[in-house]
Amino acid sequence: MKQKILKYDVVYEEQEVGGYTVTVPALPGCISEGDTFEEAKTNISEAITAYLESMVRHGEKIPSRDTNILVEQIKVQRPIV
């Protein structure tokens, strides 16, 4: 059986204490982390696979990539304290 390749948008958030936290907006609760960007990327790939395998085992429909997500940085002035 041929496996279908799925693509999901992921969001990497650099942590102040070091490392990265990664979330997948199309898969609520699918989150991972890593000490380096590459480690975080590997870990979220494994987390997505496990998440989808769990959905299949429970007879749930696998969501398609969420294309309605836009991530952008916006600059604002810091308030004076």
TrEMBL record:
Domain HicB-like antitoxin of toxin-antitoxin system span(s) in chain numbering: 8-65
Source domain of life: Bacteria
One of the Pfam families matching this protein, by short name: HicB_lk_antitox
InterPro entries referenced in this protein's UniProt entry, alphabetically: HicB-like (IPR031807), TA_system_antitoxin (IPR051404), TTHA1013/TTHA0281-like (IPR035069)
Listed name of the protein: HicB-like antitoxin of toxin-antitoxin system domain-containing protein
Organism of provenance: Candidatus Woesebacteria bacterium GW2011_GWB1_38_5b
